[in-house]
Specification:
With about 280 residues, the protein is α/β, with parallel strands linked by helices. Helix content is about 40%, strand content about 15%. The chain has a domain of about 190 residues: Rossmann fold (3-Layer(aba) Sandwich), CATH 3.40.50.720. Strands 2-1-3-4-5-10 form a six-stranded parallel beta sheet, sandwiched between helices. A two-stranded parallel sheet has the order 6-9.
Amino acid sequence: MKVLVTGAAGQLGADVVAHCLAAGDEVVAVDRAMLDITDDGAVRDVIGSARPEVVVNAAAYTAVDACEKNVDLATAVNAIAVRSIAETCADVGARLVHVSTDYVFDGTLARPYREDDATNPQSVYGKTKLAGEMAAGPDAAIARTSWVCGAHGNNMVKLVLRLANETTDLTFVDDQRGCPTFTADLAPALRRLAFDGRTGIHHLTNQRAVSWYEFVREILEVAGYDPSRVRPISTSDLDPPRPAPRPANSVLDNAVWRDAGLPMLRDFRAPLTELVAELKS
């Protein structure tokens, strides 16, 4: 395929580019310096000139707490820009794969969230990402994911490895649960969505749900540290409290993907082990 990837220098975009190249695709990789997706004219020029078969939109404003203060920027990047991309894809006949988030849910459900469950975002980030899903339109493939980690950019794995070398006192919340998802596994799944020409919402996460506290214990153990160094606290004990509310339940049921007979992403411990080994090498 000929694939254009936005946000190509980001944590997820970089692995999408690498995976598509490895699969033999012709890839047009555009980072923020090459394409400001909030510039409608630039979006139409770049996609119109490249005329890809697929656009993977991995660009987003993902600073969850900063979104609370920068509502206009979050809206421009996560919602309005997606409409420009979707409209341009329609003009050139390209399929759109758009990446979304677990934050479109309020986190109060007592079971994992399915694709057809009612959305109710509680943060600016979640609200703008839901608006982006709507802007992408019914012909797009929308991939909701959660707790993303990879070799590029900042994420929980890198944070924990750094903190483990700086301090012996680690505290993380044990009342927020989700599925850590690794770009090494998510990137191939996004390409599969494009290659198969799938549309609609798909939940895509690595398997096995944990709390942040449990995830940090796993990271420490895999990295060769004593997992007992981390202590659990509740969200209400965070000091200072986080500006943006987090969903207590971020676990996504990959029902649509599973029902289509597609291979589930691995238990997160496998890509975690691979990533830690890469970061420590």
